[in-house]
Amino acid sequence: MMNTYRPTNIRNVAIIAHVDHGKTTLVDAMLKFSNVFDSRVKPLELIMDSNPQERERGITILAKNTSIIFNDTKINIIDTPGHVDFSGEIQRTINMADGCLLLVDAFDGPMPQTKYVLKEALTNGLRTIVVINKIDRSTDNIANVANEIQDLFLDIATDANQLDFPIIYSSAYEGYAVKNLDDKKIDMEPLFQTILSEIPAPEAEPEGNLQMLTTALDYDNHLGSIAIGRVFKGTLKKLMTASLIGLNSDTREFKIDKLFTFSNLKKQEVEYVIAGDIAAVSGSNEFAIGDTITSLNNPEPLTRISIEKPTMKMTFGVNTSPFSGNEGQNATSRMLWDRLSKELKTNVSLQIEKTDKPDEFLVSGRGELHLSVLIENMRREGLEFQVSKPSVITHYVGKTLHEPYELLTIDAVKD
């Protein structure tokens, strides 16, 4: 049996919350505190929301990676979406982390998606730090919010140790965090100190059989497809030959062309990446989310990522309107199918299937927003097509018809 150890100079942290509770703004504050920007350049707001639709809609759609060095420790940060329609992004990336920051609005308190993301984190055994954010707006409701968070943990926790969690109070917008409300509000250092003391270093087997799980994909015009994921065992080395295990245990050989780790907002080319760290690998155009990169001589797959099933469906078809071709390229059925098939490589919550009509395809996703983002991306690419009205996906359990449902929270005046 290989010896395991914890590289004390690495922390892997996911940031999770209900939508609009300040995750991406918190990452902004952490990056600014760590002085990753050129002093001559004023950094943008919502730095991690690089997708045009993310900036326009004001939400995070895609999970992303960055890293920060604090006290000689590399903190890998995974910024995740807060909207339930993009829960697949959380499910595919959360296994890279050993701990998480659970952000809760100091005024709103825990919301429906707070419960979902916390359940995912605790199910995956992540050590949780609660961050009550936006205390610059109001501190009147913080005691009630803290009690609501405690109740939420009592309802979800699967282990008594999960009920013991630290609380940090912050204003990501103002750029400070404190351990106690009476502390002097200076900068984000208290949050970084808590991460180092509370989030465990990753458990690793650097001499074990190589295993890296692909949880995200990137693309470079020169390098082609890039697989991103955490190295769970062994050591990845540049120019080494490895095995890629795909769906249904399909195994192929490839050579690692370039190897990167994350450094601040960029990928940094390296010669090797040890177990416990997050890597980006090029060398194959066959990468898919859920694939395992493993040793050539003893290929061992990791468990593929499990994603919740879609809840909404609609048809995408060739535009048959008399005005077709006026606003874009009139997509043929082949063009449409190829574009949707390409989307499956990165959009893990999506499902597509052919219908009895050759020019229409059934597309299923996690919700209306999930599908609308796809439609808008395709439209901006110049494709012209028509879609049907979305409908709920139902299925039978035994003889009983089941359908998805949503929980609604209404804030009303007390009197």
Describe the structure.
- Helices cover 20% and strands 31% of the residues.
- It contains 8 helices and 25 strands.
- An 8-stranded antiparallel sheet has the order 12-11-17-8-9-16-13-14, with no helix packed on it. Strands 2-3-1-4-5-6-7 form a 7-stranded mixed sheet, with helices on both faces. Strands 18, 19, 20, 21, 22 and 23 form a 6-stranded mixed sheet that branches.
- A hairpin with a 5-residue loop joins strand 11 and strand 12.
- The chain is globular and about 65 Å long.
- The model has no long low-confidence stretch (mean pLDDT 84).
Report a brief summary of the structure.
By secondary structure, the protein is of the alpha+beta class. It has eight helices and 25 strands.
Number-wise, the strands total 25
Q: What structural category arises from helix and sheet content? A: alpha+beta
Give the fraction of residues assigned to helices.
Answer: 10-25%
Rg measurement, Å: 22 Å
N- to C-terminal distance = 65 Å
Q: What is the mean predicted local confidence, pLDDT?
A: 84
Unreliably modeled segments: none
Major beta sheet, specifics? 8 strands, antiparallel
Number of helices: 8
Please state the overall shape, judged from the principal axes of the Cα atoms.
Answer: globular
Main sheet: strand order: 12-11-17-8-9-16-13-14
What amount of the residues lies in strands?
25-35%
Oligomer description: single chain
